Structure prediction request, 296 residues.
Amino acid sequence: MIKPILASMSLMLSINSYANEKQFPEGTFVYRPKVDTGFEQYRTKSLRNSNKIVLTFDDGPHRTRTPKLLDLLKRENVLATFFILTKNVNASNIHIVERILKEGHILASHDHDHDNNNGEDEATYREELYNTVAMIESLKRKYNSNQISSFYRFPYGAYGQSKLYHHFNVMKDVSNQIYGENCINFAFWDIDSDDWVAQMTPEQISQNIIAHVKGGTAYKHKVKRTIFGNTKYEIKKYKINSPIGGGVALLHDIHERSIQATEIFIKKAKQMNIEIVPLDEVDEFSYKNKSCQSLI
Ligand SMILES: [Zn+2]
Prediction:
């Protein structure tokens, strides 16, 4: 009897205090496979009605599009976070990673290879998480970066569904190995711009972010047909009447339309007084009072 009571007590504690405020795994809570799941509880509440947006870009670095985006961000004096696939970093594009760090953006991991972590056994997930976070640390060291944050974004936002282990428990272990404390933040997002849908135009992608801040017209995808595993989408207009008023926006720096959408969004944000802020300046993602120095 004692165990379940303790478990539910610590779950209550975690709901009321740490885990749902910060996107770090809660230090003393043992996460239960297939029970402690979902990410509605990890929305960025501090950005609600703040008129603030955090720009995050996944799946890079891309040979031509990431540099184009970096040029744009530099011109417009905007900072972003890049969730890269560490397996994509090689001699031909490491200068792009160098630019990300030297131009003040946050370098973060989106896993080594973008596999769905729910399909991986514990040993594989543990090894890959260690390797990808260690690689980000070695890149930070190589380019003398003073970034202390360590963000990891689950591919597809997928975690917690493996039967035999829970990703957050492993994340705490790996973090202890690398930093000696709980430093890996599993950054989810609040606003999916839907920029991965090929039929979305840059205008529509930008409008999808704006509508979540200010309300109004937005665009969603609907499956039109799937032939031999090839899915065609159609775009449907809809209205957001109660916008969240700010949040972390998900984009991808591997599509031309996403770079164009970012340009449109930044211009409109300036006209509409929407502030673009760096991820680590947001409460849920803050590293204030953490040292998080790599020990490896
Ligand atoms: Zn991705």
About this structure: The radius of gyration is 19 Å. The chain has a mean pLDDT of 93. The first strand starts at residue 52 and ends at 58.
